Amino acid sequence: MFVLGHLGIGSWLAARRVRADSIAWLLFGAVLPDLIDKPLYYALSFATGRHGAALGLISSTRTFGHTLILAFALYALLPRRIGTALLAGIATHLALDGLGDLVGFLLPEAVPRPLGPSVLSAILFPLLGWRCPVIPFATLREHAGVSLESPWMLGSELLGAALLVWQWRTGVFSPLQERLRKRGAPARSG
Q1: What pLDDT is recorded for position 41?
Q2: Which residue from 150, 133, 149 is spatially nearest to 51, judged by alpha carbons?
């Protein structure tokens, strides 16, 4: 989950470090690891009826999308304007997931944690071995339910939403806002 947190906090951390016309790519990068790994894990789990360690390598929602390999491959393969913004967004995502794991380690009741290796094992995959974190949830519904009860997740989502609104109002997203305005404007006849 944590979509608003990743978007709001991630863009707040990195928006000044990317070109203004690449803000959309930064936002996309901030959620890309979850856009890859959550559907991958839950589709595989649904298709096989297994979850967690029983699935083998794809044992959680933090696998290939949460690796530095993916982040640097995209950076290397894409035009610099896009690759830099994606890398910055992915980096904020990975940092926030790592911070969540640290908070979960220090305050276990505040954050639902994966079993076994932390997000660090996904980030550095395969340097720390051919294992990914093991998700402690059997279904997406269970994952969402536990996440919504977590003070860390709720606080992160609220902070992320507030930062998104603040950045929108202060013009951080002005190139994106302008593009959206142009798309929504009726065609002029002339």
Answers
A1: 92
A2: 133
